[in-house]
Design brief:
elongated; 162 residues; 0% strand; mainly alpha
């Protein structure tokens, strides 16, 4: 076995990590987007409409329009992750460019959600969204630390010379 091949633990950790990333992020954005776009007919629920009543968002572009934009962004993250899977980016030797674009769009989506919460003075909601944003940023950095950006021995460090 070559120095850059790593151990069985490197491979197991890689596969558990990559499956977790696709599953966690994919499921989160699938259900969020699906609920807004398809189950709710892209109409903001009454509680959301009340939350934004009297704000500039209620007049331009309108709560339903922003709700639809958020739904499209959320569902787009899911679709981008699907494209990444179809391209085989989950394989250790493949670059994860599309996956990283999907995660970046997730960051933008959380930033938009945070703006909405902040604009209505919902500090608790803002803090929650900020946590999602931060966790997604960590996932982004984790993906950057996976092969092929690092040696196949990414966990055991066998690929590093000292």
């Amino acid at each position: 076995m070559g120095e850059r091949d790593g151990t069985i633990f490197d491979d197991v950790a890689y596969w558990l990590t990559i499956v977790s990333v696709y599953f966690l992020v994919g499921v989160l954005f699938f259900y969020s987007g699906k609920e807004k776009l398809f189950d709710g007919d892209a109409k903001a629920p009454p509680g959301i409409a009340r939350q934004f009543d009297g704000t500039f968002v209620a007049t331009f572009p309108g709560v339903d329009a922003l709700w639809t934009i958020l739904a499209i962004l959320e569902f787009a993250v899911f679709v981008i992750l699907l494209i990444s899977l179809v391209r085989g980016e989950f394989l250790p030797h493949r670059r994860k460019s599309i996956l990283l674009v999907g995660l970046s769009l997730g960051l933008v989506t959380f930033a938009c959600l945070s703006f909405g919460q902040t604009s209505t003075g919902n500090n608790e909601g803002t803090a929650s969204i900020f946590t999602y944003f931060g966790a997604t940023a960590v996932i982004f950095l984790l993906v950057l630390a996976l092969p092929p950006n690092r040696p196949r021995a990414w966990l055991s460090g066998l690929g590093e010379r000292r």
